[in-house]
């Protein structure tokens, strides 16, 4: 365990260093540790040790918060229930030790308090010149009692609320970054190969798919505001981490959509059946998400997946979605300062990579790998792969028998390659002189706050 924690700590620091340039929110230690815990720790002995595991639990008896039934976590042997959707206890404080005797309130107990009084009604059907939308009430047809500021919106905007809704900027719970035009184009292209597309947390793609006649689509999102714009048949207020449709549970339209037959007689030939396109917050736990996706696929009887997630979480993705392969395309976001032109975010999918053609100004086809890769990616004969993950040059290290970042050098002491200043051997010595043994564990635990 000491070894693991030691590694964890080194990896934690390395992770913070690597990620902070991309994601300013990670500079605060809490989220860094959250990232670490979902990232897991690699070692030679064990391909991936997950620091925090999610264990199976019964949603009917589990304690609940505003996000529905909690999940049962196991952090290095300590079991507790916590919020499924929100990784920040300042925002969602639910924490119930597994051994707690006093019964906690379940979703059945609190559902009526959490759900809004207003039903999910159809948005206005007869177009007017413009509507007024109240974000606080989450309504277009305004209640005369409402005293909030109301924004006028045109009929055109009604169909694409992601272009004007204020961004929910809390990165730990909801990460509302919308894809750039180029990325949208690629995703819509891929989605158009299917008859039926379920968009989980991808409202901007959903908005565009409304205009693709042969695709039947449904949006599932944890942001309830979309109810004001999309009726019950096409939108479900949904938490993908505990598979909860907030209003009607398993009787919601989402499950009807998933189980529905597609129109085989439609003109477009050669279409695939069903696609799930999911863009979770990067702090989201992949284990529970994969359970939800499996449930959806077994209900649908088939289905392919596109998961949008950072390349540095590849090990985590492999653990929970072994069937998905990483496409080298760098996802871009129109409303993220640092991810407008490139990003560490990739598409993980079981659509054959050879069929995902990427923009030729930046990508090329590698015949040996049978997939499109970034231009900087050079095929390594020894690894028989295009190994670069981050669109930087890689070189082959014969001692490690693998490709590594070109800035790294092989370290005799550590018996592996790393950045010169990140020598674990040297750092280990420094640490043992600075702190008494065991402090790493304590420090890590304090930072997590759980
Ligand atoms: Zn919660
Ligand atoms: Zn209002
Ligand atoms: Zn290659
Ligand atoms: Zn190589
Ligand atoms: Zn090496
Ligand atoms: Zn070293």
Oligomeric category: single chain
- The CATH architecture of the largest domain is 3-Layer(aba) Sandwich
Q: What general form does the structure show?
A: globular
How would you characterize the largest beta sheet? Answer: 8 strands, mixed
If you average the pLDDT, what whole number results? 80
- Structural class, judged by helices and strands? alpha+beta
Helix content: 10-25%
Keywords: Cytoplasm, Methyltransferase, Transferase
Region (Disordered): 430-450
GO molecular function: rRNA (adenine-N6-)-methyltransferase activity
Main location: cytoplasm
List the helices and strands and how they pair.
Elements: H1 2-20, H2 29-39, E1 52-55, E2 64-65, E3 68-69, E4 71-75, E5 78-82, E6 95-97, H3 107-114, E7 130-133, E8 151-154, H4 155-158, H5 181-191, E9 194-200, H6 203-209, E10 216-221, E11 235-239, E12 244-245, H7 253-259, E13 272-278, H8 286-300, E14 304-310, H9 314-320, E15 325-327, E16 345-349, E17 363-366, E18 371-374, E19 379-380, E20 385-386, E21 394-397, E22 402-405, E23 409-411, E24 416-418, H10 424-434, H11 439-448
Bound molecules: zinc ion (6 copies).
Protein name: rRNA N6-adenosine-methyltransferase ZCCHC4
Pfam families: N6-adenineMlase
Keywords: Cytoplasm, Methyltransferase, Transferase
């Amino acid at each position: 365990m000491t070894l693991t924690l030691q590694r964890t700590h080194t990896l934690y620091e390395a992770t913070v260093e690597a990620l902070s340039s991309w994601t300013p929110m990670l500079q605060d230690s809490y989220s860094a540790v959250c990232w670490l815990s979902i990232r897991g720790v690699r070692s030679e002995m064990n391909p991936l040790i997950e620091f925090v595991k999610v264990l199976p639990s019964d949603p009917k008896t589990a304690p609940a918060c505003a996000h529905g039934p909690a999940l049962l976590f196991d952090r290095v042997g300590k079991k507790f229930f916590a919020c499924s959707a929100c990784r920040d206890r300042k925002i969602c404080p639910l924490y119930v030790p597994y051994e707690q005797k006093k019964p906690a309130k379940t979703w059945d107990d609190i559902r009526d308090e959490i759900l809004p009084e207003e039903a999910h009604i159809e948005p206005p059907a007869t177009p007017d010149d413009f509507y007024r939308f109240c974000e606080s009430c989450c309504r277009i047809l305004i209640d005369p009692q409402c005293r909030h500021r109301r924004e006028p919106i045109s009929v055109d905007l009604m169909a694409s609320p992601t272009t004007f809704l204020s961004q929910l900027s809390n990165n730990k719970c909801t990460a509302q970054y919308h894809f750039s035009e180029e990325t949208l184009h690629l995703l819509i292209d891929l989605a158009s190969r299917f008859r039926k597309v379920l968009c989980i947390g991808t409202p901007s793609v959903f908005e565009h798919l409304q205009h693709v006649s042969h695709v039947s689509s449904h949006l599932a999102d944890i942001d309830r505001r979309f109810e004001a714009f999309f009726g019950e048949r096409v939108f479900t207020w949904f938490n993908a981490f505990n598979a909860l449709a907030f209003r009607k549970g398993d009787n919601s339209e989402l499950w009807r959509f998933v189980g529905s037959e597609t129109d085989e007689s439609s003109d477009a030939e050669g279409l695939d059946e069903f696609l799930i396109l999911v863009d979770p917050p990067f702090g989201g736990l992949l284990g529970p998400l994969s359970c939800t996706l499996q449930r959806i696929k077994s209900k649908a009887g088939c289905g392919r997946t596109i998961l949008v997630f950072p390349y540095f979480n590849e090990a985590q993705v492999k653990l929970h979605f072994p069937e998905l392969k990483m496409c080298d395309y760098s996802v871009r976001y129109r409303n993220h300062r640092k991810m407008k032109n490139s990003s560490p975010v990739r598409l993980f999918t079981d659509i054959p990579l050879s069929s995902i053609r990427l923009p030729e100004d930046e990508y090329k086809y590698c015949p040996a790998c049978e997939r499109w890769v970034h231009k900087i990616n050079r095929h390594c004969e020894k690894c028989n792969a295009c190994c670069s993950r981050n669109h930087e040059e890689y070189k082959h290290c014969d001692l490690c028998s693998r490709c590594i970042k070109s800035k790294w050098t092989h370290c005799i002491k550590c018996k592996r390659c790393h950045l010169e200043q990140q020598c674990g051997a040297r750092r280990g010595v420094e640490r043992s002189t600075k702190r008494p043994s065991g402090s790493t564990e304590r420090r890590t635990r304090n930072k997590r706050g759980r």
